[in-house]
Amino acid sequence: MKPLLCGLIFFFHSFIYSQNIYFPTYHYESENGLIHLNVLSIQQNPNNILYFITQGGVYEYTGNTFVKKTEYSGLKNIRN
How many structural domains compose the chain? Predict the structure, then answer.
């Protein structure tokens, strides 16, 4: 009985397919506005805006391009 059950399980197992999960992958470069490609951290605020922290500064992702955030554009200086 066990060999028959194992044989049926292996036979029908070959007809079962798992879902193909597709995760899109995007590569952002300087053409998109991300000058420094060494990203140290990625943060998301409650408004779903992404911030990329690099060695060259903080970049805000607007959905199409990256905008470098500075003290003049509203980024607070935490060193003072």
Answer: 1
